[in-house]
Amino acid sequence: MSTIASDPVWLPHRYDPEHDAIHFRRTPRSAHGQATFLTDEYLGEAKPTIVKRAAALAQAGPPAPLRFILHSAFCCSTLLARAFDAPGLAMGLKEPVILNDLIGWQLRGGDGRQIAAVLDGSLDLLARPFGPGETTVIKPSNVCNAMAPLMLQLRPQSRALLLHAPLPVFLGSVARKGMDGRIWVRELLVKQLKQGLHVFGFSGEDYLGQTDLQVAAMGWLAQQALFTRLTVQFGDRVRTLDSELLLAQPGPAVAALSQFFGVPLDTPAVVSGPIFTRHSKFGQAFTTDDRAAEREAEAAHADEIAKVAIWAEAVATSAGVSMHLPLPLLG
């Protein structure tokens, strides 16, 4: 049993608060590379090995240095996490479900001190290095952003990139995804309201009266406000980047992030390789022409996107939320 909690091949996949136990599933490095996210949907079904949390932490070895890619969705975060699958240097973990479990526990009214203790141990287990000298880069799901201040407090040596798409680009991504995108932003809003991330003065009735893209914009603003607070609270430990700048200047962006994270990636190889030339979620070849075609598919929603962006900027001004984040990675 001791080889499970000490071996990074065994992913701490789920947390069961009722039994204070970790569900591990065998996930070799190759499976991380093939999976879009570390969910059963992409990893496939597997019978977990269940270990009591205390026993797992007693068996686990020392964690690697920890870095975070925090994001507001639809902004190339999966692409960047893939860049850190660099044997001997780093490993990128894409949306580990155990962190979502802690958010779910929090939303159900779990005790904050217990959640913090479990989060602390979960980060240690996630950070077990695949190889000597490697850094672990975690890209949580964006629903975990409310837990970002606690994660950074628990790991005072960690650093984080705050990644986002400009609002019109984000709205276009939501619109292009049709009903699935519109349902997703409303589900996100419900969670953010429970997490206390909305301080814009709107009532529940106000949100019900908003269009789907207005709701999407409010979710984006809530994350923008949170990211701004993180820059104030953690200063030089965080940097910010928007997806359009990343795509326009991939070489400088990857080089700057590599330096900020302390991971000496081979920037030319990363930028010219499959990470930047294939779709980060589906794997097929993906060029700048393909990206332009996606944007053309948003043309039918252009009028609504433009109007919502203007409206959201007015809301942001009233709430004192900047549309542009400080501490840019590329200054």
Question: Could you explain the architecture of this structure?
Answer:
The protein is an alpha/beta fold and 331 residues long. It has one domain: Rossmann fold (3-Layer(aba) Sandwich), CATH 3.40.50. Helices cover 52% and strands 13% of the residues. The protein is built from 18 helices and eight strands. The chain has a five-stranded parallel beta sheet, with helices on both faces. A three-stranded antiparallel beta sheet has the order 1-2-3. α6 runs antiparallel to α7, α9 packs across α12 and α10 packs across α12. The longest helix is centred in the last third of the chain and has 23 residues. The mean pLDDT is 94.
SSE ordering: HEEHHEHEHEHHEHEHHHHEHHHHHH
Structural class: alpha/beta
Number of domains: 1
- Helix share, percent: 40-55%
Helix count from the secondary structure assignment = 18
Kindly state the mean pLDDT as a whole number?
94
Assess the beta-strand content as a share of residues: 5-15%
Ranges where pLDDT stays below 50 over 5 or more residues in a row are none
Characteristics:
331 residues, alpha/beta, Rossmann fold, five-stranded parallel beta sheet, three-stranded antiparallel beta sheet
